[in-house]
């Protein structure tokens, strides 16, 4: 990449793309004009245009489960089927009424106290989106009530919330598309027991529960009232569901108008995705670069590095979005694909990771690509400027590296003698050539969050389409879930000697 930059003063202009206030600089990818042209040709050859039209029009792009993937309808994108948008709008109307009643103190708990604390119980796609957005919004937007999240079946998480909550004023949202996820139901039962202990078993505990689910019957069986059960359609996947009723905790905490801004951001990215030519289409370019890195260059990992504490949960959100969607290895015909698909996604706030694991990026044997995500507010503070500086320094240093000669020069400049210079210099060498994309967004707002989450969703779809896999099922996860159920139930189906041995050891340890 040093050579590519040295040979082309216009590389940044040629390999960056702006749309709706966002800027994607991919000049630090290991890409040339001809490679980019080949990748664009690959998108055409894969029939991506038809793929986008198929997804938006509600064709069963989730071909194993024979379902549409209409998360764009949840943000009211006009190219999606009117019936899907009408379904979303009907639920949204009920949500708006409910939120207004909570805010007005009309929807009260069993003892007549207003709701002041909302605890969102969900996991995976029923948790990560609202959690990310709540963290992103909280520092700059006024909150109408306290909001907490519990996902883990380890009750340390929910206990810490319940210990400081007032039962009479607490509302639990049980968010589960399937309403069968063990962790979420475990936490919901813990919440119910806590309420019953505090308010009395005779209290109307249904006044403290809301359900968001595709399995309305299971929510009713749990005891959640019909008027506080909000459906989510089958055609919206869990990891794409933040735009649906799953956004209720955000509406309650920040107001429905804030959620509307978020949807508008997603919708504006939908418009860009559906209309911009592929060569100037942010999600398509991001997807093609991901394919270039994972499939053609064989990179193992992809680190997402937000330079904003408010976006600290973005890597976890994208981890599910990308790895659960595209962690697949068979094509439409059930045949093994002959190429690498999704890389391992990980990351965290860049300024923090820099002092922990970035070392491997510089000098390890594995190769990783990076997304630097950098919000730019119009009037930056000193700390904002430090974030910008760190982000740009990391991406430049990873790209440029440090040669043996440069290492020697640096050591000599420190007054180190020749023998010691020769001994140490190889240890200072950084190979460089580490590819990164930098995404600039105009500050962290509900609208810009909507834009970037939709951008990544579309990226995932484009990649899945080109790789020829189904981005919308998750059969692999089921295997582990079923096995956990078997083990908990004491069934000895498929027991290997390691599991048998470990169970015996746990038995012995728990009998003491
Ligand atoms: O186990 C994986 C998964 O099914 C994810 O796809 C989903 O987001 C998460 O569990 C939670 O599922 P649910 O919303 O049905 O509780």
TrEMBL record:
<comment type="similarity">
    <text>Belongs to the GPI family.</text>
</comment>
<keyword id="KW-0413">Isomerase</keyword>
<feature type="active site">
    <location>
        <position position="355"/>
    </location>
</feature>
<feature type="active site" description="Proton donor">
    <location>
        <position position="324"/>
    </location>
</feature>
<dbReference type="InterPro" id="IPR023096">
    <property type="entry name" value="G6P_Isomerase_C"/>
</dbReference>
<protein>
    <recommendedName>
        <fullName>Glucose-6-phosphate isomerase</fullName>
        <ecNumber>5.3.1.9</ecNumber>
    </recommendedName>
</protein>
<comment type="function">
    <text>Catalyzes the reversible isomerization of glucose-6-phosphate to fructose-6-phosphate.</text>
</comment>
<keyword id="KW-0963">Cytoplasm</keyword>
<dbReference type="Pfam" id="PF00342">
    <property type="entry name" value="PGI"/>
</dbReference>
<keyword id="KW-0312">Gluconeogenesis</keyword>
<dbReference type="GO" id="GO:0016853">
    <property type="term" value="F:isomerase activity"/>
</dbReference>
<comment type="pathway">
    <text>Carbohydrate biosynthesis; gluconeogenesis.</text>
</comment>
<comment type="pathway">
    <text>Carbohydrate degradation; glycolysis; D-glyceraldehyde 3-phosphate and glycerone phosphate from D-glucose: step 2/4.</text>
</comment>
<dbReference type="InterPro" id="IPR046348">
    <property type="entry name" value="SIS_dom_sf"/>
</dbReference>
<dbReference type="InterPro" id="IPR035476">
    <property type="entry name" value="SIS_PGI_1"/>
</dbReference>
<dbReference type="InterPro" id="IPR001672">
    <property type="entry name" value="G6P_Isomerase"/>
</dbReference>
<feature type="active site">
    <location>
        <position position="481"/>
    </location>
</feature>
<keyword id="KW-0324">Glycolysis</keyword>
<dbReference type="InterPro" id="IPR018189">
    <property type="entry name" value="Phosphoglucose_isomerase_CS"/>
</dbReference>
<dbReference type="InterPro" id="IPR035482">
    <property type="entry name" value="SIS_PGI_2"/>
</dbReference>
């Amino acid at each position: 990449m040093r050579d590519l930059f040295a040979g082309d003063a216009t590389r940044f202009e040629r390999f960056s793309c702006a749309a709706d206030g966002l800027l994607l600089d991919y000049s630090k990818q290991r890409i040339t004009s001809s490679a980019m042209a080949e990748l664009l040709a690959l998108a055409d050859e894969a029939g991506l245009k038809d793929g986008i039209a198929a997804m938006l029009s509600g064709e069963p792009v989730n071909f194993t489960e024979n379902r549409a993937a209409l998360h764009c309808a949840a943000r009211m994108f006009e190219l999606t089927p009117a019936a899907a948008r009408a379904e979303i709008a009907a639920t949204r109307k009920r949500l708006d009424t409910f939120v207004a009643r909570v805010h007005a103190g009309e929807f009260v708990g069993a003892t007549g106290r207003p709701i002041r604390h909302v605890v969102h119980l969900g996991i995976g796609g029923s948790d990560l989106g609202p959690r990310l957005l709540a963290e992103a919004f909280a520092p700059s937007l006024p909150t109408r009530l306290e909001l907490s999240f519990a996902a883990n079946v380890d009750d340390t998480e929910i206990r810490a919330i319940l210990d400081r909550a007032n039962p009479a004023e607490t509302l639990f949202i049980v968010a589960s598309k399937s309403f069968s996820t063990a962790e979420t139901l475990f936490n919901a039962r813990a919440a119910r027991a806590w309420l019953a202990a505090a308010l009395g078993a005779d209290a109307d505990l249904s006044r403290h529960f809301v359900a968001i689910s595709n399995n309305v019957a299971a929510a009713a069986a749990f005891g959640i009232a019909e008027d506080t059960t909000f459906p989510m359609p089958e055609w919206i996947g869990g990891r794409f569901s933040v735009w649906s009723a799953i956004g209720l905790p955000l509406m309650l905490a920040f107001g429905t108008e804030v959620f509307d801004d978020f949807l508008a951001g997603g919708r504006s990215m939908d418009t860009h995705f559906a209309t911009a030519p592929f060569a100037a289409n942010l999600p398509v370019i991001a997807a093609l670069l991901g394919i270039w890195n994972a499939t053609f260059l064989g990179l193992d990992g992809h680190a997402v590095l937000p330079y904003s504490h408010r976006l600290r949960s973005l890597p976890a959100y994208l981890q599910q979005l990308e790895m659960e969607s595209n962690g697949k290895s068979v094509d439409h015909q059930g045949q093994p694909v002959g190429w690498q698909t999704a890389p391992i996604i990980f990351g965290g706030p860049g300024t923090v990771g820099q002092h922990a694991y970035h070392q491997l990026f510089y000098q390890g044997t594995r190769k990783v690509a990076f997304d630097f995500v950098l919000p730019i507010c119009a009037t930056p503070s000193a700390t904002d400027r430090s974030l910008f500086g760190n982000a740009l320094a990391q991406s430049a240093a990873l790209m440029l590296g440090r040669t043996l000669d440069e290492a020697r020069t640096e050591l000599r400049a420190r007054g180190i003698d020749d023998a010691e210079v020769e001994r140490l210099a190889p240890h200072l060498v950084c190979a460089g050539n580490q590819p990164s994309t930098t995404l600039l967004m105009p500050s962290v707002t509900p609208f810009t969050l909507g834009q970037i989450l939709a951008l990544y969703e579309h990226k995932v779809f484009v990649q899945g389409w080109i790789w020829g896999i189904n981005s919308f099922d998750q059969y692999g996860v089921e295997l582990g879930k079923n096995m956990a159920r078997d083990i908990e139930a004491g069934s000895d189906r498929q027991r290997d000697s390691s599991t048998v041995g470990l169970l015996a050891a746990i038995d012995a340890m728990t009998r003491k």
